[in-house]
Amino acid sequence: MSEQEGWIAVAASKGLRARPLRVLVDGRPLALFRTDGGLHCLTDICPHRSAPLSQGKVVGDTIECPYHGWRFDGSGVCRAMPGLLDNMPRALVPSYATCEKDGLIFVARQRLSEEPYTTALSGHAGVAAIVESRVRSSLAEVAENILDATHTHFTHKGVLRGLSSRRYKVQVTMTGGDGWVEARYEGEPRQEGLISRLLEGDRTISVGRFRAPGIAELEFWGRSRINLATTFHLRQETTETVHGFGILSAPDRGLFGHIKAALFKPLFRVALRQDQQILQAADENRRLFGERRQMIGPLDVMRPHIDAILSGRWPEVADRPATLTMEL
Ligand code: FES
Ligand SMILES: [Fe+2]
Question: Is the minimum distance from the CB of 84 to ligand 1 under 6 angstroms?
């Protein structure tokens, strides 16, 4: 599991039904399964001959190994060794805490006192959708990409941005704390791209925020409330890939809101694909050229802080909030 402690989103609720499911966190395979007793997560390797438990099946309140049928309960304790007539030796598979909220399944090394954070509109959202995406890149690159306002003119022309190249002067305020950093953008009129036209309403400010261990979120505020929030739960799945679940939510605006949301989801997927393409092309290029230092430009407001948080440090703006004016 990642260096950072905390809940990590590993699957969509609807992706886990009767059959166990393997998910990867930092290259480590975990087996998720549901019994009448609830949702469980074990390390996906049998202590007997190393078979993947996720290829077995759920039997009663246990998962049954596909190789010799040993059965493990949700806490990882072996409850049955088929054919054994004597006392059972102790066998244990490491287990993880699980939690299911707002359509996502989260795991953690140990049970945490707080529920996982899902989205700012959790409990209030009238319209919510979950999109899933996988990209060959690193967590820092993907988180930055989601929170980076300067690429939208180029990567997302027409989708998030209008076709005109008009820019507006925007004031950016950076603040942060233990495990989080945010950029607040003021002075930007509503973006003219299709997605913004569909859902945002009158925008007054927008906020981009990174939270450990892997949440990148954008909030578009109207006068007094959030009009639209997109919260990405990211994890480094293997050394090569990052997997993410994006929760799109907006306050309920009745039928019209639902129609807008239905239109929003496919457009959002288009934007995700555009990001995926550029991130993967850059990732491949880094491999071809060998890892090389990247330049942090003066407008890359988030990246140094994301890197700091991912290496367990506080972001610099925690002590000294910073402001910057740029044209977006
Ligand atoms: S490998 Fe799992 S029971 Fe033998
Ligand atoms: Fe993007």
Answer: no
The reported pTM is 0.91
CA of residue 79 to ligand 2 center, whole Å: 48
Q: How many Å apart are CA 134 and CA 219, to the nearest integer?
A: 22
pLDDT band, very low/low/confident/very high, at 155 (cuts 50, 70, 90): very high
> pLDDT at residue 254 above 70?
no
Which ligand ends up closest to the CA of 141?
Answer: 2
The model's pLDDT over 98-146, given as tens digits with 9 standing for 90+, comes to 999 999 999 999 888 899 999 988 887 666 789 999 999 999 999 999 9
Q: What is the CATH number of the domain that holds 80?
A: 2.102.10.10
Domain count of the chain?
Answer: 2
Which domain, by its residues, includes 92? 8-108
Contact (Cβ atoms closer than 8 angstroms) between residue 180 and residue 211: yes
Q: Is 53 in the pocket of ligand 1 (CB under 6 A)?
A: no
Measured CA distances, 226 to 100, 160, 174 (Å): 24, 18, 19
Asked if the structure places residue 248 within a domain, the reply is yes
Nearest residue (by CA) to ligand 1, atom 4, is 68
Pocket test for ligand 1, best of 65, 79, 93 (most atoms within 8 A of CB): 65
Give the N- to C-terminal CA distance of the chain in Å, as an integer. Answer: 37
